[in-house]
Amino acid sequence: MTATLRKHVLFDLDGTLVDTRAAVVACYTQVFRTRLDSEFPPKRFPIPDLFAMRPAEVFALVAPDRIDELHAAYRDTYPRCTDHVKVFAGVRDMIVDLVEQGRRPSVVTNKGLERTLIDLDVAGIEPSLFAAIVTAEDTADRKPHPAPILLGLERAGARADEAVYVGDGPQDILAARAAGLDVVAVTYGFYERAVLESHAPDVLVTSVAGLTAALNGRSVVEARS
Length: 225
Known about the structure:
The strands form two sheets. The protein has a six-stranded parallel β-sheet with strand order 5-4-1-6-7-8, with helices on both faces. It has a two-stranded antiparallel sheet with strand order 2-3. The protein is globular. 41% of the residues lie in helices and 12% in strands. It contains ten helices and eight strands. The protein is α/β, with parallel strands linked by helices. It has helices at residues 21-35, 47-52, 55-62, 67-77, 91-100, 113-123, 147-156, 170-178, 193-197, 208-215, and strands at 8-11, 18-19, 86-87, 104-108, 133-134, 163-167, 182-186, 203-205.
């Protein structure tokens, strides 16, 4: 069986199923302005790195004595920023199709559960479609550590050789490899194609349509992006 026809398909969330960049930036911007009287992003932090970090980790770098306060403010603010969340067209149909085939999609994300459920609701994707949902609260380590993916396998009742991981960042590729999974990388998310190619994913796709085709064992010729 090819890597992309595995029964279990574990998905990253941000940059893979939904585009939350504008929502995250809006949320951080409000918290930084109202609580820290400063602008976001901090000059020393590249934006892609910030998207890979949990909010508590970001706040630990900018105000280590106020992590809990700022993280609470972020959680309170995010629901008011969901107008900025964009849904990648075709994602829900892709997941429903997997379920109808008797396959088992799951979500493994560095994002917290509350915001994960908000994003899925905006996307119109029912949490019940997933065999497992693993979020920031579930493991002490975040991707690129394999712990979240290993927990996703455990909760879904899957072995590594029965599963493939789909993500948009180098941390996804590294975590999947460390967990023993093949990995599909998508270039329509937060990271440039060259960055993903440098980590040699098993499959690289440029669109949701291409991802859907790949997960159904069909090869697709896509334009470079």
